[in-house]
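In this supplementary section we document a worked example of the pipeline. Step one takes a protein sequence of length 99 as its only input; no multiple sequence alignment statistics are reported here. Step two produces a three-dimensional model, which step three serialises into structure tokens for compact storage. The input and output of this example are shown verbatim.
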Amino acid sequence: MRLTKRQLKRIIREEYSRLKRRGLIREMYDDPNMMEDNHAECVQRCLAAIPPNMKKICSMGMGHMVINDVWHMCEPICDEMGCDCDLVSEEVHEVLCNG
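The serialised model returned by step three reads:
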């Protein structure tokens, strides 16, 4: 069976709408200012989630030992808020080690 471009586009639109209704697709924010605000809040929430012993390790100059742990602690928060986990965890790590 062959599909025309129009038929294929209609099928994709219908499937996209169906997945969106079921909550399986989340759209990224179109407004860059909103995304920046969301990013800052995400960083703050991630910083609050870091346990004191990891903060102490960073303050002792051994932040390289916990960078992967920081990413894993930030991942669920970033997923929930729609942020880029790599950017957020990098910023959190920077604040912990240099701030």
